[in-house]
Design brief:
Layout lengths: L2 H19 L5 E2 L2 E2 L2 H10 L7 H14 L4 H20 L5 H26 L6 H34 L7
Antiparallel strand pairs: 1-2
Helix pairs in contact: 1-3, 2-4, 2-5, 2-6, 3-4, 4-5, 5-6
């Protein structure tokens, strides 16, 4: 088992527990932060990080404890992984700006997918109400959560994927 799996899988489980026990209780209007979405955005933009298996693991773990269908959460996290892959492929020069962009687009995408699925399930809540009370506050909380997690994930990536020494 690779070293990164021994570190990242328990960290992912800890983040799911932290999300369900603490972060989901910090509300702004009706929105709350998504620590796993922010973590995946940060991890995916690291140089040698492989985000796909962690997006699948996070999607399945959160889908298991969430009231949403697990495919909704999985699709949202895979979309974040795809966004990070696209930005990293384009040799993004400003990583913090890239993280903000992925967090912004990922939050909007995740909430859009959730809105469509809930609307098809018969939820009567309107689009503007959802946007004003849930999506925009969640977006703000996710963007505020990005800065403290940025330093942690950057150090973690340096520890899990150490740079090759030159002679």
């Amino acid at each position: 088992m690779p070293m990164r799996a021994l570190i990242l899988f328990p960290l992912m489980i800890f983040l799911v527990i932290l999300q369900s026990a603490v972060v989901s209780r910090i509300n702004l209007l009706a929105g709350h932060a998504d620590i796993l979405l922010v973590f995946l955005a940060l991890w995916g933009l690291q140089e040698r990080a492989d985000v796909w298996p962690w997006a699948i693991a996070a999607g399945l773990l959160v889908g298991f404890i969430s009231g949403l269908p697990w495919l909704v959460v999985l699709a949202g996290y895979l979309l974040v992984a795809a966004l990070t892959w696209l930005l990293r492929r384009r040799i993004w020069e400003a990583p913090l700006l890239g993280v903000f962009a992925v967090t912004f687009i990922g939050t909007l995408s995740m909430h859009s997918i959730t809105f469509v699925v809930l609307k098809l399930s018969g939820n009567p809540q309107g689009f503007t109400e959802t946007l004003e009370l849930i999506t925009l506050p969640s977006l703000l909380l996710n963007l505020l959560l990005t800065l403290p997690l940025y330093a942690f994930v950057r150090d973690l990536a340096g520890w899990v994927h150490p740079a090759k020494e030159t002679l």
